[in-house]
Amino acid sequence: MALHDQTRKTASGDSGKAASGESGEIASRLLAWYDAHHRDLPWRIAPRELARGIRPDPYRVWLSEVMLQQTTVEAVKSYFRAFVEKWPDIEALAASATEDVMKAWAGLGYYSRARNLKACANLVARQGGRFPDTQAGLRELPGIGAYTAAAIAAIAFDQPAAVVDGNVERVVSRLFSIVTPLSEAKGDICTYVERMVPATRPGDFAQAMMDLGAMICTPRRPRCGLCPLREDCSAIISGDAERFPVRLPKGEKPLRRGAAFVAVRGDGAILLRKRGDQGLLGGMTEVPTTGWTARIDGGTTAAAAPFPGNWR
DNA sequence: GTCCAGGTTC
DNA sequence: GAACCTGGAC
User: Fold this and answer.
1) Which end of chain A has fewer CB atoms < 10 Å from its terminal CB, N or C?
2) Using one digit for the tens of pLDDT, what is the confidence trace for A14-31?
3) How far apart are CA A134 and CA A265, in angstroms?
């Protein structure tokens, strides 16, 4: 659906200015709120530090953004601290053993991120240790998709990139009461954000949108009374912020079964193996298992044990 | 316990 | 469009 149709459909009764996000009012209100209420995070350079001339370190921005993909801020904090302690810069990470990186990542989930992290570190270190400073250049690197490229460009390099993560999708879908399901509306949401991004402090603007989504414009029970954008928000005006964003119902997830074999030797040693690098839990250590399939058959029973025995 | 959120890859 | 993991809300 074209953006102008969306705007007409969703923002009726609103002043065109605020609804289109072109006035710059939204960005300045949001930045003022961010200055007063931003979260203090281990990887973040706060507004008053930026004002004193402290620059973000692209390595730390990249590391934190990769860790934050599909992962909550609380879970990331301790891992981030451990990583920068162990590997303070991209050269240190590039010089590490992949296995050590996998170990340090254990517990964070989505382990392909750790393999891509290491691959990316090797690549960047080999090219002189400098990250590309454009979205397109960043997008080429392993483990960096549209969101992460925009986030690094904005936060580390102060470029006016449209940073759209799940938080921002929720904030924008409420601001403009977007009734189109999220999967279809992503393009329009990105266009709205592009129009809102200010020429100055684009990195703080990106972080402010995400802080707003995390602290005020929450998925459930949003704290609209505290929101700096309450006068701009179409969903508040109609009193139903919580019904946005609209999502398509998701399909059933297939159930897969299999067996795991725990072999304990007399001296207490346990038989372990390393999984292949691709797919489920790639590169992780495990007890031997069968394949995992939709039905129980010869490949998922004791018949597939690593050695004959009295398996129970 | 059950439901749900969430970027990148292939 | 499906696969990939964990943790938070209820």
Assistant:
1) C
2) 444 444 545 699 999 999
3) 55
Let me know: does A80 contact A64? Beta carbons within 8 Å: yes
Closest residue to C6 measured CA to C1′: A109
Q: Which of A65, A99, A194, A231 is catalytic?
A: A65
Q: What is the CA radius of gyration of chain A?
A: 23
Q: State yes or no: is A242 an active-site residue.
A: no
Length of chain A equals 312
Instruction: Look at residue A114 and tell me whether its pLDDT is greater than 90.
Output: yes
The H or E element that residue A215 is part of is helix A202-215
Our measurement of CA A217 to C1' C8, in angstroms, reads 16
- The residue assigned the tokens 């102060």 is A158
Q: Which nucleotides of B are covered by protein (CB under 7 A)?
A: 5-9
Contact in structure between A41 and A208 (CB atoms under 8 Å): no
Q: What is the residue whose two structure tokens read 């597939």?
A: A304
For residue A202, count CB atoms less than 10 angstroms from its CB and return exposed for 0-12, middle for 13-18, buried for 19 or more.
buried
Which residue's CA lies closest to nucleotide C9 at its C1' atom?
A220
Asked if residue A181 has a cis previous peptide bond (ω within 30° of 0), the answer is no
